[in-house]
Specification:
Blueprint (H helix, E strand, L loop, with lengths): L1 E6 L5 E6 L13 E6 L7 E6 L11 E4 L2 E4 L14 H31 L15 E4 L2 E4 H4 E7 L2 E6 L5 H10 L6 E3 L4 E4 L5 H38 L5 H34 L2
Antiparallel strand pairs: 1-2, 2-4, 3-4, 5-6, 7-8, 9-10, 10-12, 11-12
Helix pairs in contact: 1-4, 1-5, 4-5
């Protein structure tokens, strides 16, 4: 880019320059007198502007200095905003719904396992599901280190794969809330289950009610997290307000279904406990 400065009057300088670089960004003031194509080159333009003597700037990027006009290049960053496609939005919605169902199913399964570990009138190997044994310095599931069977309706038989773990298994059972005394004969451990007293049955019923409420709280927390995910999509303009309302309504129907499952499991367990 070449530029020259001439003057037709003492107070009105005229700036003429040739701009043939498409990357140069020159902003000219409203005092431009004329724009004319150069006869020498079709790609170049000669621009003449009138400047007030007290304004050294010729728009953005051009400044008059003692050595003549200085033309600066201005590079402008381009910001590209890409909107999510319908397929991407549907994929995000499906991922949220799938995650919700997976977590709710896991909650129900955890609750079922907890209920099975509560002793009822009959012997059940699931009673030992939650018992962990200290085995070579690490806690492991009792079922992973011993074979468990039910010889009859009132006793359990534990045969460890490693006899050296007998004492550790015995200790874990004593420290549990089963309320039974293990009989270790050096080869196997037998658990004889005494009949449940009326008072003990009522205590276990309260345990069931507590665990049932914990399951419901877990379901509510899952719903809360899903609603936050929907709100996030709305803020990102991926979902409309009506979309979020519809999804929230569907989510409430889903959680109501799982709440009923919790109540059904609790009623079934209470019935087992109160059955003499």
């Amino acid at each position: 880019m070449a530029a020259s400065l001439s003057s037709t009057a003492n107070t009105i300088p005229i700036l003429r320059f040739r701009a043939n670089d498409s990357k140069s960004l020159v902003s000219l003031p409203g005092s431009c007198l004329r724009v004319m194509a150069s006869d020498r080159a079709s790609s170049a333009r000669t621009i003449a502007c009138s400047l007030r003597s007290d304004n050294p700037w010729l728009g953005a990027g051009v400044k008059l200095s003692g050595g003549g006009p200085v033309v600066k290049r201005s590079l402008q960053k381009r910001v590209v905003i890409r909107s999510a496609t319908i397929e991407e939005i549907e994929a995000e919605k499906s991922a949220i719904e799938k995650d919700v169902k997976t977590k709710m199913e896991k909650t129900i399964e955890t609750l079922r396992t907890s209920f099975n570990s509560i002793r009822t009138g009959r012997a059940n190997v699931a009673m030992l599901d939650k018992i962990e044994v200290e085995y070579y310095g690490s806690p492991v599931s009792l079922k992973s280190i011993a074979q468990i069977s039910t010889p009859d309706g009132t006793s359990l038989l534990l045969q460890p794969y490693d006899k050296s773990s007998l004492k550790s298994i015995e200790k874990a059972i004593v420290n549990s809330d089963l309320g039974v005394t293990p009989n270790n004969d050096g080869d196997v451990i037998r658990l004889s289950l005494p009949p449940l007293t009326s008072e003990r049955r009522k205590e276990l019923t309260k345990v069931v009610a507590k665990q049932s409420e914990e399951g419901k709280v877990a379901l509510r927390n899952i719903r809360r997290d899903a609603l936050k995910s929907y709100d996030k999509l709305e803020k990102e303009k991926k979902l409309s307000e009506d979309n979020v309302k519809d999804l929230s309504s569907d989510l409430q129907k889903l959680i109501d279904t799982y709440m009923k499952k919790v109540e059904e499991l609790a009623k079934q367990k209470e019935k087992e406990l109160l059955k003499v």
